[in-house]
Amino acid sequence: MYTRLPVPQRILDFIGEGSLFLIAGHREPDEDCVGSQLALGELLERLGKKVTLLSEGPWERAEIVSFRERFKDTADGCDRRNTRLIVVDCSPLERVGKLGDALAEFPVVFIDHHKTAAPTGLSYINPTAPAATLLVLMLWEAFGQPLTMEAAEHMLFGLCADTGFFRHLDADAETLADAQKLAGAGASLKKIFAAVNGDRTFNSRKLLGTVLAKAESYYDGRLIVCTEEREETERFGRENRDSDMLYQLLQSVGGVEAIAVVRQDTPEKCAIGLRSKDAVDVSKIAAVFGGGGHKNAAGASAEGLIPELKARVIAQFGECFR
Ligand SMILES: [Mn+2]
């Protein structure tokens, strides 16, 4: 359940005293990351700052690709002596990707809501926040800026995506109170739902079907594991992945407690996606593979091939289901 934390004065000073800012997020940006960057960028511009939004990509999600042109993928050419960096929706800097190496010298603030947050410097971390965009909303309020419709839409966009359109929330009054503020500023749930869930291609459904058809069940149905080979991704197109829908369909199976998806991303590496319903803390399992995330949603990128990594992931769940 979300408990608001006040923004530390040192963070307000860091912003107040700077004039040039880079705002970065994690690699493989998602809606919350992009929404946080856009809404924070707009706030800083309203405060008279010059802002550059950074993202390494890859821009694979259909829901966010329209924002791509507003982001740069390099900090080259910025005034290195006077520029400050804000990293949202992740920490430490390594999660930004290769781009993070080039950002190591800047004074930095981390704004993150991940359970596995590990900031290296000034930070505003709240693992109870359902989305990083709600931490950005705290900044809008701390600076006394009235919400614009555009910023409110970006923040609601991130909130909707990270909460599965509110379905992962308990009786979370604080979060709904924030959603009410965003709706009050003109952000439309209907418009966001259409942006997140509409306009899927025929191939995206075929890929979903291919992956679902191979799903395997372990530990008396408490764990479901899916795999996606490179050949399958290529046949239907990377842009046609719909992980959220895949998790949603599998989580609706009676008795299931966790879902693991192992996808061969490159010949050497797999992406591991993990979801759980209640008790199982998948962020701990992701951490074993060098990743991180939240109790009920986490992931990692690990060296290896599907058969080996799948077996290791299943074995890790043994602890939870004993
Ligand atoms: Mn997030």
Q: What's the SSE blueprint?
A:
Blueprint: H1 9-17, E1 20-24, H2 31-46, E2 50-54, E3 83-88, E4 108-112, E5 122-125, H3 132-142, H4 149-162, H5 173-184, H6 189-197, H7 202-213, E6 216-218, E7 223-228, H8 230-236, H9 243-251, E8 258-264, E9 269-276, H10 282-288, E10 292-293, E11 297-303, H11 306-317
Parallel strand pairs: 1-2, 1-3, 3-4, 4-5, 7-8
Antiparallel strand pairs: 6-7, 8-9, 9-11, 10-11
Helix pairs in contact: 2-3, 2-4, 3-4, 4-5, 4-6, 7-8
Bound molecules: manganese (II) ion.
The site of manganese (II) ion (MN) has 6 residues, from loops.
Distinct ligands: manganese (II) ion
The total of beta strands comes to 11
Helical percentage: 25-40%
Largest sheet: 6 strands, mixed
Instruction: Provide the CATH top-level class of the largest domain.
Output: Alpha Beta
Query: How many independent structural domains?
Result: 2
Q: State the separation between the terminal residues, measured CA to CA.
A: 28 Å
Strand order of the biggest β-sheet = 6-7-8-9-11-10
Stated plainly, the CATH topology of the largest domain is called inorganic pyrophosphatase (n-terminal core)
Alpha carbon gyration radius:
19 Å
Given helix and strand content, the structural type is alpha/beta
H/E topology pattern? HEHEEEEHHHHHEEHHEEHEEH
